[in-house]
Amino acid sequence: MVESDVVVRLGLGERAPGLIEWERRCLSENCSTALSNILRKILNRCHGGLKNGVLTTAVLFLVAFLVTSAVRAGEGGACSVLKDSSGFVDHAKEAGSRLTSRFFKNLREGATGDEIRGHLANENIFAHFVVGKLASVESSCRFESSVDSTYVMNFNFVGTNSVPLNECFLSHCAQLLAGIVRSGPPPEPEFQSVVSSIAAAMEHANAEQSSFLSLGLRRATLEVYRQLYADGTPEKIIVSLDGRDFRNSSYGNFLSWYRRFSDQPAGTPSASDANVGVVSRQHICKVRAAPMIRELNIDRRGWGQRAILLVDQGYSSDGAEGIPNAMLRDLCPPHAVADRKAPNVLPDRLANSISCAREDLGSDRWLVIYSNRQPVANLQEMKAIAASIATALGGETCSDERARIYIANFTGQEAK
What we know:
Elements: H1 2-10, H2 19-28, H3 31-46, H4 53-76, E1 89-90, H5 92-95, E2 98-101, H6 113-137, E3 143-147, E4 153-157, H7 167-182, H8 188-207, H9 213-228, H10 234-238, H11 243-247, H12 251-261, E5 286-287, E6 293-298, E7 307-312, H13 326-331, E8 354-361, E9 364-371, H14 379-392, E10 396-397, E11 405-410
Parallel strand pairs: 6-11
Antiparallel strand pairs: 1-2, 2-4, 3-4, 5-10, 7-9, 7-11, 8-9
Helix pairs in contact: 2-3, 3-4, 6-7, 6-8
């Protein structure tokens, strides 16, 4: 993109005036018109320094470079997308707005639970710092960060009103994001601010009582995952992180961790990492001896849910085509439809109160079926739905160890 190339090639320590505006306007206007307007602004701002021969040469070089860039843009579209130049993987086709990075090396095989917990907490701190810094540098590039159990940092675009999201703009944000990632660890004051912010957000989420069933679903599914995954696994640990893991973090330990694990180019997996391909690994679903349905009794409140279903590998990507099974597609349309006719699998009273969420945890993809409004489905109704889904899936499980469908029955008392 224009801004990043100019900063690199001219060696400017700060942005040249007008360049961000030039880049944005070229997304929606004719680039030659935008170029002339922005160059006029640059020259006007620099007018007082044009008597200086060095500045004159720099401005002329900048003008020549921007003209060349505009010609390239005219040949290839409104602006060119620099794919993978930032060290990030763009999942635009699948998620529409997700960038991922493997900046840090993975832990050694056989790492202890405490080592995994500290590693995941530190990666979360760094990712949180990066998106905060990005928003302060470029307010239109607003992302939420997360770290998954395969030690990948995920950056999900959360929207802007000033620039329409497209591949070109996402590439621009990716380059800025990558530059911040490579710039080093946060200073101690920013580190302390980040850990306090993460801890406060997690503690608030745990205490929050929402009247909207959809908002409480994530808390309910986390309780299910804590029962599904074995102690000491990255999956179990990442869903068990809480505010104490961040409030107890020290800056000295964070810096030691950073120096140990960040000695590789952004976006390059560790050569010694045996789990590099785990994200793209395909689960093979077939008829096995493993049970098709299991019930989990969870002695915790369900955040408004009485029972929910989790279907192992219930989806493969976003959109209707991302759910291969026809019955599940009918049950889980990609967009809510008011007053739709109840699918055959649902009783009439639940026609408009059942929704689906797509969640991934490492290489596992769970299709979560839950109540989005009153009346809330009860255990017996969810059991009947699970039985119909099992039949539609042909009795195929996707693992030798676990069922294809889990019925989570919440037996704890809801807080008053």
